[in-house]
Amino acid sequence: MTLKINSMCPDFEAKTSEGDISFHEWLGDSWGVLFSHPKDFTPVCTTELGVLAGMKDEFDKRNVKVIGLSVDGVEDHVKWLDDIKDVSGIRPTYPIIADEDLKVAKLFNMLEGDAGTSSMGRTAVDNETVRTIFVVRPDKRIGLYLTYPMATGRNFHEILRAIDSMQLTANHKVATPANWKKGEDVVILPAVKNEEAEKIYPDGWETVKPYLRKVPDPSK
């Protein structure tokens, strides 16, 4: 199955650094962020897990559960958490999936079906495509995915910004423009004709172009 935006997110059972989970059950009614790593004890990923640990409160505020995935076992994950604390000063408290048999990486199309059935003997380069972030909506459908090269650390502020946009646009008939941040003006959807817009926005809007109508963030 090829995954894309609005695809049903695959469900799976797995061992994690916090115990066994069933993914959809673990998500419950929350939003979710699954971010994957090609190998434990890799430099860029070590910094990423530490940064995300420091930002967990921001995800919690948005009802977003965070879970990592790495192509290694639980024992290595636990040892890696000690390194992450040494580097960042914070020990992650979110679970990290142990994908020793590569099943989850394959399920999410991050590795080919013929990639083997064990992480043993595989290097980070062998698993370099296991670098995708998936944002999962409460309806268990994929809202966003981004894949980064191994040498480029991920920007989790951008993930938060995108989640703010997705949560806003899920509840209001608006879209967010380029570089938008929470609280800034938004765009009325083209499908909302002026007659309907007048009822939703009685104070009016700024018409930049007939198809580009700006209003204040309706969630403020």
Write a brief caption for the model.
The protein is of the alpha+beta class. The chain has 6 helices and 11 strands.
Please report which band the strand proportion falls in: under 5%, 5-15%, 15-25%, 25-35%, 35-45% or over 45%.
15-25%
What is the spatial order of strands in the main beta sheet? 5-4-3-6-7
Mean pLDDT level: 96
Q: Helices and strands, in N-to-C order? A: EEHEHEHEHEEHEEHEE
State the secondary-structure class: alpha+beta
Pick out the low-confidence regions. none
* CATH superfamily membership of the largest domain: Glutaredoxin
What is the helical fraction, as a range of percent? 25-40%
Q: What is the alpha-carbon Rg in Å?
A: 20 Å
Number of strands: 11
For the record, give the distance between the C-alpha atoms at the N and C termini, rounded to a whole number. Answer: 39 Å
Tell me the number of helical segments per DSSP (H or I, 4 or more residues long). 6
Query: How is the biggest beta sheet arranged?
Result: 5 strands, mixed
CATH architecture field of the largest domain: 3-Layer(aba) Sandwich
Broad shape:
elongated
Quote the CATH topology of the largest domain: Glutaredoxin
CATH classification class of the largest domain: Alpha Beta
Task: Produce the secondary structure layout.
Blueprint: E1 13-16, E2 19-22, H1 23-27, E3 31-37, H2 43-61, E4 64-70, H3 74-88, E5 96-98, H4 103-107, E6 132-136, E7 142-147, H5 156-171, E8 174-175, E9 186-188, H6 194-200, E10 206-209, E11 212-215
Parallel strand pairs: 3-4, 4-5
Antiparallel strand pairs: 1-2, 3-6, 6-7, 8-9, 9-11, 10-11
Helix pairs in contact: 2-3
